[in-house]
Structures are given as structure tokens and as C-alpha cells.
Design goal:
The complex is a heterodimer of chains A (238) and B (604).
Chain A: E1 3-7, E2 10-14, H1 20-26, E3 50-53, E4 56-59, E5 70-72, H2 76-92, H3 107-114, E6 131-132, E7 138-141, H4 150-158, E8 164-167, E9 174-177, E10 204-206, H5 225-228
Parallel strand pairs in A: 1-5
Antiparallel strand pairs in A: 1-2, 3-4, 3-5, 6-7, 7-10, 8-9
Chain B: H1 6-20, H2 27-38, H3 43-53, H4 57-66, E1 78-83, H5 86-90, H6 93-104, E2 110-111, E3 117-122, E4 134-136, E5 139-141, H7 146-158, E6 176-178, H8 191-199, H9 201-211, H10 223-232, E7 243-248, H11 257-264, H12 266-280, E8 284-289, H13 297-309, E9 326-331, H14 341-348, E10 372-376, H15 377-389, H16 391-395, E11 405-412, E12 418-423, E13 426-427, H17 428-434, E14 440-445, E15 451-453, E16 461-462, E17 472-477, H18 482-496, H19 502-519, H20 525-541, H21 545-549, H22 552-560, H23 563-566, H24 580-583, H25 585-591
Helix pairs in contact in B: 1-2, 1-3, 2-3, 3-4, 6-7, 8-9, 8-15, 9-10, 12-15, 18-19, 19-20, 20-22
Classes of the chains: A alpha+beta (238), B alpha/beta (604).
């Protein structure tokens, strides 16, 4: 059974139970997002996928579609809201795109381009966050973590390991690793884990290789994320 | 207390496990017990609890880092936290903090080298009518004066255990100033439960519907509807467990009425919970008590024990076979967000108090994903009376949309701070007159997340249809700089944001920093627009009510009291957020050059 919602004036089919994000993705309509990955339960924390429904903003990834629902996504007001949210994500961490191994293939960077972010706008927080290089195959640069909890969800729901959790609260919220020492090298994390593949930024990176793809051939070099899709959620990208 | 031996910690954890059980839901309660015993949560306790409860180390550490009253580093033998609500500040708490720190020879948030004492600040402890207040090892001390602080310094230096501190320090007065429908009579003998047994759950629900009772926590959801949804959840299948939760996490700055209800109207609160259990078919209920009120636990436990002995709790209540219900007290540990019902449920399950995605609402999927009613303390009390005396009794007061009365916690600049019960629909000025407030500049209704009122609005009505309130009512006279209120609330929200969603996590910190920039005389008109823009974004895009309401005080005061900002502005248009000349200081020091040419002239 399929019914219809109106997204930016365009009818889009959906099946009952789908969220606005599900329906949009299925119809090939891009709504920018960071904490959402269709392989995992919707989270609703990054707030980048805000859309307008009935005069209010809701997150597309957690809002179930109702028949005949009218959804606004591609408006200047909403674009401005998304831009501010992405800017917040940039200033709360330490994101140095030109030097980052993930640059050009980074979902955060690609979304920032998509929402038209030209500067961080807000004052930088410059948090002190150490890098964890204790694991033989992977490193974690917490400076680039945006707390999307995709690694938390992938490790818990797919790898069945619970390697990651979020600790603290407020701006001091941070990713922690489940091992007696708190280090990745002492955890059950393995390079083959799904959690190793889901990070939308450059926070979780493989060791021993870097900058392999020349500029021009990186994931988002030729076309924007609205065309290319997510880092790992593209068809066959599992 | 320093660092205990691992074996000591393990033995204590083992005793706690015997007492509280191995369910992962008990994690937070174990951690609170460990904190209370050792003054911190040592790594040995983290390891022992992770192993025994089968939860991840990371989850245990995450909980410790989330709750303000849990620490992963040793605190002093005397862990002193001054309540730092704006009302405490107005009563001079900052001077007293300074006095104690000086007497004891240590700074804020520091532990003295001998491990004897730590001094810090904490969010409102619910003693605004008898502040300034503090918590020492979790116990509330009220009515602080310089003399009392002096004595505390002596007691700490002499190492006198808390049990031998003067009892007067820990005295908490009810300060009930005006009694209405609910407060006029604290007595009950289980009458509402007998009504329920005589007439059945449907009649009880009909009376609740007739009464128009709405939740007293602020949101105002119809109580009868909530109970009915829960009763009918899972197709009404009676074999599915259901739960009753009393939200006694009274964390909104400036509110303390639940403290009084739990002290002097205890039976009525428990009776309301029992009544709810009878209606929805629950066998277990929780009183989620904010950590600041842990001094109430012995009293609450004794009332629970008496009610069990009287056949009003436990198996076969009032000799009715199958009417089985009991209540457990769960402590919070310093997290405002846990007053939000889904965060409260997460906390009850032993986790960090992060709000859940809704729907499903707790009435469908709450504690352990089972149908759960979460109501405010005052709501349970009112529900018990409605079923005892009938729906029309509550309708006798209030307005069409807001039946009955509201209990207010009045504090700030007034002659008689305390508890006032008024019919809904009472104008603000009536409260101000009764409590002896003069020269009032502003009233903050419903706490830091509520509404800032200017004098022109004092004829507005306390009612869901005009000024909904959970009961906090803070008064500011003309001698106050309202920017102090804004700074206090902005810091509060930055401290209390759970950190789950971007707009609230980052927005509360940005607002706090901008407000401080204004106070420091570094801000320009541009920054005021930034405050508005960030506030609007948080209102629209945050995940839960905390983020939606956290900018209210900023947006309200920008609209109603623009002068409190403008008189601090450095230039009308633009000023940099840092001082370039000062930033070059280290370069001047390194090069040894400090001439006129080595300074950057400030632009006028």
C-alpha cells in the first residue's frame, strides 16, 4: 500500500510507517543529514535534517509520514537553520579540513558545502581532545567527532560489541571507549567492524594509509553530496 | 577520604549488590551509594559494577560523568556544594562562598591538599525560601549566614562528622503561607482507595475527567486521559506489567513545593500513586527523588513502612485480593534534564538521563518499554482528593480550562517567601501583594525555563490558558540588575543541557558566552542579534523541551528589558570578541619590546 506526501510541492509516494527521510531517500530526494544512516535506528540528534511541517520544524529522520502531509525542505529559512546547526558542529570541535585525511570524502564537509556554509560564523570552542592511536589498525581523532553516535549504534546493534558510548553532558559530552583503560587498543574493536566504517567525519580512520585518493577523485570532488549520497550508505557501499 | 583499597571498594559494592540487586536498572542507585560511601566512584567500583550488572564499562563511566553528584576523582571528606540559583545569589551566597573558601584556605572546585574538604557550586537545591543553602555530603543546610559559615569552617577543620553538626543547620521549614483546596488538610486514611474499590476504575476515571485535572508539572496534560491511555495500552492486556512513576525531580530553579508536599503531605502523595496503580493495573511504582532531597529518604521510607503495615501498600491492599502495589524510592544525582519524563525513565533504568524519542509516549512505552504513568507530586495528591471527594470538588475553583488550584513556590525579593496555594486564574499582582513584594521590577514565572514578566503584565493570570506554571515564582525588585538573572540562567542551562542534540548542546554554551561578553562590556549590537538568532534556532530545532525553553529568559529580557543589555554595550555596532593588544602581550614579553609602536591602538 502506498500513499503520498507533498515535499516542496512535489508528490512523493510513501509506505505507511516510513519517516519523511525514508520516503525522501526512496524517491531520490536529498534532505541533508549527518546522524542518520538507513542501516540503523533513527536518532534525531544532529538536527541537520530539519524540515517544515504545519508551520513547525521537525527532524525528517524521526517523523513518521502521514497521508497528505505537506513538507517543506528546500526553503531559504530552513537552509539558514541547517547552516547554523552545521556551523555549531564545526565550532564545537576542531575541524581542520585542509589537513584532514577525510577531506573531499567527508560527509560533514560535504553537507557544509551543500548548506552553503562559508565560515564557522560562531566563535570557536577549541576543545582539548586527545587522539587515541592505541589500536594497531585504526585511530580515533576525537577532535572530529560530532556525536552522531553512528559508531555507538553500529557497534551495539550490528557488531554486538558495545565498543562506544557517549559520556558526560552538555558541551562536555564526548565519545568513550569500552575497555578498562578507556583506550581503543584495549577494546574489542576490530578493523572488520561495521563501526569502523560508519563515521561521517574523519574521527575514525584506518592507519597505515592516507591521502590515497588524489584531489579530483575523492568522493565529493566531482558532484555534491545531494547527487553522490552518503559516505557508506550508497548502493553497494556496505 | 582519599583512595580506598580496592578490596574495601569491592566489599562495599558486594554489600550494595546484596541490598539493591543485580538488575542493570540499579546501576545509578549503586553508584550513588558508592559516591556517598567513598566521596567518589573509584575505578574498582566501576569494574565491579560493570561485571556484576553486565553493563559496559563505558556505560558505567558515562553515567558517572553525566550526573553532577557523581565524581571519578576523589572529593574532600566534606564535599560542600553551595546552591547557586539566582535567589541564592540575591541572598548573598557569593560572599559566603568566598568567606568559607578563605577560612578553609582553598579555591572553588578545588580539594584541599589534606583531602579534608572540597567547595563547589551546584544548581538550585530547592531551598529558595530559606537560602542561601548548601549541600554537605548530600545533606541540605539552610539559612546560611556569615556566622553559620564560620561555624561550618570550624566543624570541617575539626573533622566533626555530620551527625554531630548542630541539628539547626539541617532544619528545613515548610513555610506554608496560604492554604487552598489541597493544602487545607493533609490527613487521609485511604479514602480514595476505598472509593476505587467500591466504585471501580471506570468511575474513578470518570471523576478525574469531570474534575478537569491537568498535570501540575507545567505541561498540563489531562490526567484522566493519561491514566486511561496507560490502562488501555497493549489492548488492555492485564498480564503486561505497568508502572507508576512519581516525578519528584523538582529541578526547576525556584521551585520547592514538592519538597513541602513530600514532607507534610506524604501520605496523600503515596495514596495518589496507589490509586493510579489500582486504575491502570500497576504492581510497582517509583518515587524518583532528586538527589538534593535525599535528606527526606528516612522520612519517606518510614511513611512507606507504615502504609505497608496499615494495609495501604503491599499485597492485597485494603484486603482486596489482587490489589498488589508497592513503591520504591529512586534517587537522582544532580541532573535537571531528568525532570523531563522520558529522561527520568532513562535515569530510572540506570542510564544517562537523555530524553527519548516521542512518540511512543511513556503511557505506551515507558519504564522497561512498558506502559507507564509519570505524574508530578502535586498531581498525584490532587488525584487522590478528586477520587475521594468527586470531580466537582476540584471544579469549584479555578477557570474553565484550568480547574482547581496551583501551589506556588514564592521566593526572591519579598517579605514572606514560601508556599502559596491559589485558585487557577489568580493574577500575578495578587501573589505579589500577599507575599509582601514591593517595587517589583520583574517576576520569573515557572522557573528559568519560564516567562520573565514586566510590571505591565502583572495582571496576567496564573492558568494554563495564560501563564502556565509548574509553580516557581521568583521576584526581582528594582534594586536588581536583571542581567544577573540572565547570566545565572544562561550558565544553568549550559550546565544542564544533556548534550544530545546540536542546537541545545552548542547553543546553550554560545548563549552563556555571549551573555558573559555583554556583562564584560565587550559586546555590540551585533551580539544582541546573535543572542536572538541562536535563541530562535534553539526554540525551533532542539530535540526536547529543555532546548526549546532554555533561551526563553534571553529572548524575554531582550524584548522587555532591553536596557539591561544596552547599558553594557561597548559600541553600538561592532567590537571584536578578543582584545588584540592583550593577545600580543606574550609576543612583547618574548621579544622584550614594549614601546609605543609595539601596541595596537584600540579603535574608538
Amino acid at each position: 500500500m502506498s500513499t503520498t506526501l507533498i515535499l516542496d510541492g512535489r508528490p512523493i509516494p510513501f509506505t505507511p510507517g516510513q519517516t519523511i527521510m525514508d520516503a525522501a531517500l526512496a524517491a531520490g530526494v536529498y534532505i541533508p543529514h549527518l546522524c542518520h544512516n538507513p542501516d540503523y535506528a533513527p536518532h534525531g540528534s544532529c538536527r541537520v535534517c530539519m524540515v517544515g511541517v504545519g508551520g513547525r520544524l521537525v527532524s525528517a529522520c524521526t517523523t513518521a509520514v502521514l497521508d497528505g502531509m505537506t513538507v517543506e525542505s528546500n526553503t531559504e529559512t530552513i537552509a539558514s537553520t541547517r547552516r547554523s546547526i552545521v556551523q555549531m558542529l564545526f565550532v564545537e570541535g576542531n575541524h581542520v579540513c585542509p589537513a584532514c585525511e577525510r577531506s573531499g570524502s567527508c560527509q560533514l564537509q560535504a553537507v557544509a558545502y551543500y548548506v552553503g556554509m562559508l565560515s564557522p560564523h560562531f566563535p570557536q570552542c577549541f576543545p582539548q581532545r586527545p587522539v587515541d592511536a592505541s589500536h594497531p589498525d585504526f585511530m580515533i581523532d576525537f577532535n572530529r567527532c560530532i556525536l552522531c553516535e553512528l559508531c555507538v549504534r553500529a557497534s551495539r546493534d550490528h557488531d554486538h560489541k558495545r565498543v562506544f558510548a557517549v559520556s558526560g553532558r552538555g558541551l562536555a559530552s564526548h565519545l568513550v571507549i569500552d575497555s578498562p583503560s578507556g583506550l581503543l587498543g584495549d577494546s574489542h574493536f576490530a578493523a572488520s567492524d561495521r563501526a569502523a566504517q560508519v563515521c561521517p567525519t574523519g574521527a575514525i580512520l584506518p592507519k597505515h594509509r592516507g591521502y590515497e585518493q588524489p584531489i579530483g577523485q575523492r568522493l565529493y570532488d566531482q558532484a555534491p553530496i545531494s547527487v553522490v549520497g552518503d559516505l557508506r550508505a550508497q548502493p553497494g557501499g556496505d | 577520604m582519599g583512595e580506598p583499597a580496592d578490596s574495601q571498594v569491592q566489599a562495599f559494592v558486594a554489600r550494595s549488590l546484596d541490598l539493591r540487586g543485580l538488575a542493570p536498572e540499579q546501576l545509578l542507585q549503586h553508584l550513588i551509594a558508592v559516591q556517598q560511601q567513598f566521596g567518589w566512584v573509584p575505578p574498582a567500583a566501576v569494574h565491579a559494577l560493570a561485571a556484576a550488572l553486565d553493563v559496559a564499562h563505558a556505560q558505567v563511566r558515562a553515567a558517572v560523568a553525566f550526573y553532577a553528584f557523581l565524581h571519578d576523582q576523589p572529593r574532600g571528606d566534606f564535599d560542600i556544594l553551595f546552591s547557586d540559583n539566582i535567589t541564592d545569589r540575591m541572598l548573598g551566597n557569593q560572599r559566603l562562598v568566598g568567606l568559607l573558601a578563605e577560612r578553609l584556605g582553598l579555591g572553588l572546585d578545588a580539594t584541599r591538599a589534606d583531602g579534608r574538604v572540597t567547595i563547589g557550586l551546584t544548581s538550585c537545591t530547592g531551598m529558595c525560601d530559606q537560602g542561601p543553602a548548601l549541600l554537605v555530603n548530600g545533606q541540605a543546610v539552610t539559612a546560611l549566614t556569615a556566622a553559620r559559615v564560620d561555624r561550618i569552617a570550624d566543624l570541617v577543620d575539626e573533622g566533626v562528622p555530620l551527625e554531630r553538626w548542630p541539628g539547626a543547620f539541617f532544619r528545613v521549614a515548610d513555610n506554608i503561607r496560604r492554604r487552598g483546596l489541597l493544602l487545607s488538610n493533609p490527613a487521609t486514611d485511604g479514602a480514595s482507595l476505598r472509593r476505587l474499590l467500591e466504585n471501580g476504575a471506570d468511575t474513578a476515571l470518570t471523576e478525574l475527567e469531570r474534575s478537569g485535572l491537568r498535570g501540575r508539572g507545567g505541561a498540563g496534560f489531562t490526567t484522566a486521559l493519561k491514566w486511561r491511555f496507560c490502562r488501555e495500552a497493549e489492548g488492555g492486556d492485564r498480564t503486561v506489567p505497568r508502572f507508576v512513576v512519581c516525578n519528584a525531580d523538582e529541578g526547576e530553579p525556584g521551585t520547592f513545593k514538592d519538597r513541602v508536599l513530600l514532607t507534610s503531605y506524604t501520605d496523600l502523595v503515596f495514596e495518589g500513586m496507589t490509586l493510579c496503580a489500582g486504575v491502570i493495573g500497576a504492581r510497582l511504582g517509583f518515587l524518583y527523588l532528586r538527589g538534593e532531597y535525599r535528606y527526606l529518604v528516612p522520612h519517606l521510607e518510614s511513611v512507606l513502612a507504615r502504609r505497608r503495615a496499615e494495609g495501604l501498600l503491599g499485597k492485597g491492599i485494603l484486603s482486596q485480593p489482587g490489589f498488589d502495589f508497592d513503591i520504591a524510592i529512586h534517587l537522582g544525582a544532580g541532573a535537571y534534564i531528568c525532570g523531563e519524563e522520558s529522561a527520568l525513565i532513562e535515569s530510572l533504568e540506570g542510564k544517562r538521563g537523555v530524553t527519548r524519542k516521542r512518540p511512543p509516549f511513556p503511557v505506551i512505552s515507558g519504564y522497561q518499554d512498558r506502559p507507564t504513568v509519570v505524574n508530578n507530586v502535586e498531581t498525584f495528591l490532587a488525584a487522590a482528593r478528586v477520587v475521594q471527594w468527586g470531580g466537582y470538588w476540584l471544579r469549584g475553583e479555578g477557570t474553565d480550562q484550568s480547574a482547581g488550584s496551583k501551589i506556588l513556590s514564592v521566593s526572591g525579593d519579598c517579605a514572606r517567601p514560601g508556599i502559596y496555594e491559589y485558585p487557577f486564574g489568580t493574577p500575578v499582582h495578587r501573589v505579589l501583594t500577599d507575599c509582601g513584594a514591593g517595587e517589583v521590577q520583574a517576576v520569573q514565572v515557572s522557573g528559568a525555563a519560564g516567562t520573565t514578566l514586566a510590571p505591565a503584565e502583572f495582571d496576567r493570570l496564573l492558568a494554563f490558558e495564560d501563564l502556565p506554571t509548574a509553580g516557581s515564582f521568583m521576584i526581582f525588585d528594582r534594586s536588581r540588575d536583571l542581567l544577573d538573572l540572565v547570566r545565572n540562567f544562561a550558565a544553568f542551562f549550559a550546565h544542564e543541557s544533556c548534550g544530545f542534540c546540536t542546537p541545545c548542546r552548542v547553543g546553550t554554551a554560545l548563549l552563556r558566552n555571549l551573555v558573559e561578553k555583554v556583562a564584560a562590556g565587550q559586546a555590540s549590537t551585533h551580539d544582541l542579534q546573535e543572542l536572538r538568532d541562536i535563541g530562535a534556532l534553539m526554540r525551533q530545532a532542539s530535540y526536547c523541551g529543555l532546548g526549546h525553553t532554555a533561551p526563553n529568559h534571553v529572548l524575554n529580557t531582550l524584548d522587555k528589558f532591553p536596557a539591561i543589555y544596552q547599558r553594557h554595550l561597548r559600541s553600538a555596532d561592532y567590537s571584536p570578541s578578543f582584545d588584540l593588544d592583550a593577545a600580543l602581550g606574550s609576543a612583547r614579553a618574548l621579544t622584550g619590546r614594549d614601546g609605543v609602536a609595539d601596541h595596537v591602538e584600540e579603535e574608538a
